[in-house]
Structures are given as structure tokens and as C-alpha cells.
């Protein structure tokens, strides 16, 4: 997949996306065509969000990598996030160089994590939607991009994020029905309860609890429990 060809057709392609999954497939193909490993499209976090799982929209980052990233609080004091919050310019990154000022513990943890998954270099592209919400697209792998590539990828990122914002808004207006059991499990999850604890409280098997939470995650178009809880709270589906 040549970047020039994608740049020339991105307006038509973006307008034709009708689901998040179609965007996912496009981004996966674009990333592979560039010889890179992974992509991430996210909303830029506020002080309320300290987990990548709660801010990502779509990504092909391995689930275990996202879990590890959040478990070690690596978004807190992230130099990448700080840079995007104070500037709208795209930039290349090298995981070792950009984390120079982190505390030694987190610095080595981040570097080892991104190297483990072949994502030690790449670029971030800050973008925004029509309502002023800020986000970003990243493509990671083993190299950086030229200035010409950066300009074309920024244009692609802008149109992709705008289309995703439209799709997300449309989905929020679609009524989603939940069973009482699903809502109970979700509410307890939001309160910090583990599946084993929820099972005892609701007199269910742990497997049944996981199935209920999995159903909620799918209905909300999410991929993790954290993301589902954040989405449900935003939509006033649950309150804690």
C-alpha cells in the first residue's frame, strides 16, 4: 500500500467508512503498508483519565501491552501526552530519547515495553474534531518518517479522526438495551470490584459475570472493561 495512493484517495475513503471496524481495517492496512507495527487513534486525556484503555478509540496494540501500560501507570507524566497537549504539531519519536526525563524506573519500563512489541520508533499526529475535541493518531514501528510522509499522514489523520468522531456521535444517539444483570455487573465493575467479588455479591458464577461484562463491552463498541465503564458513565447508563 503506497502512501501516495492513500493520500490521493483518503477523502473518498474516509467518507465511505460506516463503522469503526472499517476504519480499523483501513488503519491496519495503512500501517502494514508503511512497514510499521501498530497504530493508535485516541482522544487526548484530561486530568480525569490516567489509562490508555480509557482514551483509545481504535488500535491494534496488543491487549496485554495496553493492560501492562495501564497497570504501571505509564500515562501519568507521559512526555508524549504532555507534548501533544501543548502543541498541535506532528512529531517523530524514539522511545528512548523521548523518555529521557522520566524517572529511571518508568523510563526503563517504557523503553523495554515498546521495544518488546517492536514499537521503538514512529510518529504522533495531534488532531481535533469539529466540536474542538482533541485527539491523536500514532503509527509505531522500527523507523521514523520523512517530512513529506509526515505531511501526508497528518492529512490522513485529520480526515480519519473527523470521520471517527462522526461515527461515535451517531452511535451515542442509538438506543442500547441492557439487562438488569449486565447493569449490575457493570456498576460493580465501575466501583472497582473484580469478577470474583461480583459473583459472590450477585450470587452468580464468575464465568457468568465475565459473560455479562463481555456483553456490555460489545454493546458499547468497546474493547476493555475500563473503556466500557468510561463510556457508560459518559452516557449516563450507570452512576457510581
TrEMBL record:
It comes from Rhizobium etli (strain ATCC 51251 / DSM 11541 / JCM 21823 / NBRC 15573 / CFN 42). Keywords: DNA-binding, Transcription, Transcription regulation. GO terms for biological process: regulation of DNA-templated transcription. GO terms for molecular function: DNA binding. InterPro entries: Sig_transdc_resp-reg_C-effctor, TF_LuxR_autoind-bd_dom, TF_LuxR_autoind-bd_dom_sf, Tscrpt_reg_LuxR_C, WH-like_DNA-bd_sf. PROSITE patterns: HTH_LUXR_2. Residues 171-236 form the HTH luxR-type domain. It comes from the Bacteria. This is Probable transcriptional regulator protein.
